[in-house]
Amino acid sequence: MNDFTNSKATVKALPVTLKDVAKVAGVSISTVSRILDERLPKSKSKSAEKVRIIAKELGYTRDVMASSLRRGGTGTIGILVPRLTDTVMAILYEELAKAAQQSGYFTIVATCGDDVLEEEKAIESLLGRRVDGLILATSRIDSHATEKLRESGVPHTLVLRTDHISNSVVGNDVHGGYIATRHLIDLGHKRIGIVTGPDYSSNSLGRTEGYKQALAQAGIEFEPDLCIASRFDFESGQKAGALLFNLPIRPTAIFAVTDNLALGVISAAKELDLLPGEDFALVGYNDTPLATMLPTPISSVYVPLDYIAYKAFELLFSEKTGDMIEIMPSLIPRSSSIHTKI
């Protein structure tokens, strides 16, 4: 058994720190920090190699969050979104970049595909690039990422989604879901389907709750068969739309909780020779530019992403904690709903 293996038993505390490695190696903490800093040229000296071996034997892993805070400001902000192929996320990132630029900051964007493990990796990667703070559009109810950020003292703001603990700027999704559904009810629809999005996202849950509230207020019974869960992508909307259109009694109207999902619903309808605005009413959400460019423009709930981005950046370095700013959405009615015959 070599000396390094013997030394492993002398440090039992978890997690292993730079101080632990320095104590076993017989060098200063600053020396260990310099040798193990992956951003610096790798030293090939015997002492450096010894430190690296000891660190590996002890199971040392670098605390990216803590080291990022120690290094000080760099004038950069990390932005994390599920994907940039989502029109809403692409627009949101552009607005966040503008808001940052106005305050003299540069932004770096990363994506995680709405995957919990990829989210954690992306956060570590952004912090490893010495960002001064994070703005996240990826908060999931089943994730511990924001909890870790709070514990590490990393400045961060959540946008569009919230965990109801960290600072966040969101649309009032319950109200948005309510006005979308109420619009369809006021047009005479009673059998209204909904494509809800995933149940790990606060905005999906809020919009679905607004849908249920509008139905209840109108005395319309909630039917689980008309409520289809999905992801936020086009393909999910297409599958959900197919399920709704193939029900024994199909809905006369559909509320999709994003415009992407609404586009998927339109694609499913086309397969059955059904047209929005004629054979069924359709309302989307976020009022993306494409919503106005289709042969039948889509009614959609408008959320001011530019203002949300501005407030998110304003809140990023605020001394407040647990502050949630809710922005009121508004409905933009178009041909996809108002021309439908019931």
From TrEMBL:
The keyword DNA-binding applies. One of its GO terms (molecular function) is transcription cis-regulatory region binding. Keywords: DNA-binding, Transcription, Transcription regulation. The keyword Plastid does not apply. Residues 16-71 form the HTH lacI-type domain. CDD domains: HTH_LacI (cd01392), PBP1_LacI-like (cd06285). Pfam families: LacI, Peripla_BP_3. It comes from the Bacteria. Signal peptide: none annotated. This is LacI family transcriptional regulator. It comes from Vibrio ostreae.
